[in-house]
Design goal:
The complex is a heterodimer of chains A (436) and B (326). Chain A is mostly helical. Chain A has helices at 12-41, 47-59, 67-96, 104-121, 129-158, 162-181, 189-192, 212-215, 224-241, 243-253, 255-260, 265-288, 305-316, 321-344, 351-364, 366-377, 382-391, 411-414, 418-435, and strands at residues 196-197, 295-296. Chain B has helices at 2-27, 35-54, 57-60, 63-91, 96-119, 150-156, 161-179, 181-191, 193-198, 203-229, 241-251, 256-275, 280-285, 289-307; strands at residues 124-125, 129-131, 134-136, 142-143, 159-160, 233-234. Chain B starts with a helix and ends in a 19-residue tail after the last helix. The chains are: A mainly alpha (436), B mainly alpha (326).
Amino acid sequence: MKEEKKGIFAKEGVRSVIASLICILGGLIVGFIVLIFLAMFNENIPLSQAVKGIVTVLSGPFAAGNAKDVLFQLGNMLFKATPLIMTGLSVSLAFKTGLFNIGAPGQYLMGAMGSLLVALSIPTTVVPSVIVWILALLAGIALGVLWGAIPGFFKAKFNVNEVIVCIMTNWIAANVVSWVFDGSRFINTPETKMNFIFKTAQNGVATWSFGLDKLFGGSYLDISIFIASLIAVALYIVMNKTTFGYELRACGFNRNASKYAGMNEKRNIILSMAIAGGLAACGAALWCLNGSQDFKWNTNLVLPADGFNGIPAALLASNNPIGVIFSAIFLKYLGAGGSNLSAYTSFNEYVPDLIIAVIIYFAGASKFIKDLLKRGKIGKRRAAAAADTAAAPPDPGGPPAGEVGDGAEPPADEGSGEPEADGTDGAENAEGGDER
Amino acid sequence: MIFLLQKTLIYTIPLLIVALAGMFAERSGIINIALDGIMIFGAFSGALTALLLRDIPFFVDHNQLTFVIALAVAAVSGGLFSLLLAFSAIKLKADQTIAGTALNMLAPAIALFFIKVFYNKDQLEMTPALNSQGQVKDFGYSLKNGELNDFLKIFFDKAYISTFIALGLFILLSILIYKTKTGLRLRSCGEHPQAAASVGINVNRMRYLGTTVSGALAGFGGYVYIATVANGQATGAVAGMGFLALAIMIFGNWKPLGIALGALFFGFLKCLGGNYQRVPFLKALNLPQYFYYIIPYVAVLLVLAFTSKRSRAPKAEGIPYDKGMR
């Protein structure tokens, strides 16, 4: 990149990482303030508890005390990060195509249902368990693809806001899953009093752990975290190095321009949502196929949190698939801290949720933060920065969508000097005016 | 039959008022996807208020007063909470969908965190009111008028004071947005903020106004929902009612009359999901409950697909206001 001389903030990637770190810091500070506030107004909680609380959240699994517990919590953290990586990838892929996939919880549930049905109904006495495992994974993914394609279809065909459709499909999925399992033979009545589905290990289907579970103090860890990471790397390559990925991203930058360039933007929207659905479902399937997990079948009132948390995972990683691996693990790190929080302090497990929500709140404004960084280091380019913010919102979907100029590439990447950048912005504005 | 109609009305009111909330924000140019979260927040603060008031002897005998105060607190706290969205969308020029999602996650986190800290529970239950027969399940909020004729019964028997407040607000605000200067200014900011600014309208102030009214209405609706529909339990969710209201707003084409029709329609479907067993011929069909739960959501999809052609969203919604843009 040309700007290397101009300092580290000139690089878009670096700015993204720093913006994410600022968001995280902001979330932690707000979380800390809440704890202090609570300690001040509640005589049962001494002020030192607030400090202990935030330290506990920050230490994640390491707050567990002895080495064995730390290892155990670390292993579980990595295992629990697996579905989150997948839903994070799902959300980030849709984001890249300019779509907001808030339907990951529904896709996740459908994936869980598909994989559980297959893993529990094909007897491993007849078919080798490896085959059953693969079939179950594929079945889960297939249902997720189908479920993700619905919002894509509505968006492409009827131009209905995908957020609404995603939310409706979430609740439909939640009820369908309950409907399918209600009264079925898959419910583990003897052990769990009707609450959960049988574990897939019951049928001898379980993801291989190659001793990882024992290494990490008897946790649930298996190789699924590596599968998810591999998928993330593959997705990175597809999105950045192939024509197909380029088409998807072009569609996200500017739908009309990609259409004008001869790409089938409707097909791309449907495909993007379908793949996103498949990814989220794959996460659920990997979680279920671990073999030792209890899946709560009566989902019709509650949607899985991992589906929604894919959004912060994607946002923190600036939609970079590789980054999602780390952001997902980070979120589960905070989650582990939260569990320790309720065990060791007067606070409870909802603190990480609070912090994560604040992090997303700041992440929504990450464009603002990035522009601040840019402005601070490369001199006063107010005009450029302002035009940049105005031009880039990834349009959550009404008909006036395409009218915003194609400003997703910041001017800093296009030209090396100030006048040049201004020129580009002028042209963009003029273009916007013509469209109107 | 009367029972079903009464119930439909009860389900309709929160949807109606929250869909109107969505309309106010979007007409001013801010996408308020946080309706669900604001409802949760309003429900939480309303329930907390009601609980605290119960400890004061005076309010034990004045259930209606308690209800009205709790509604007011819910509305105020919803309005304050929505300032977070307004600040992020207007000042930070953030992506409004993401900011709204953040609020949707923040509200349950705050509610559950404080419920757990103060009450060591996962949900806040309002204590039932006491009367001569013992505990009353609906907190003494409902108005009993059993001696009326059938038609009046629909509106006034087992009715809630919130229903009339909501209907009054609905009419008042519909007039406000269409017949007053402020309303016209607010709408112009959702269509073409630069043009509005050129004639001296303070776009940011209008957008703050729209979002705050929206938040207040959504908070109000949230408490109405838990007090009348959800057995007085404030938890980390309102069963997706906020999103359903958002869909109703789109169905109603961002207009009050359309919203009223949509709310009635979906209120009926929602009511059917909870009470289908009271309808003899539906009970005879012997379909699983989930079928009736799914109907409203599928209906939303179908309706959106069929109405998408004539759907006309405010032109500038979701786009941060920038003076320099034309």
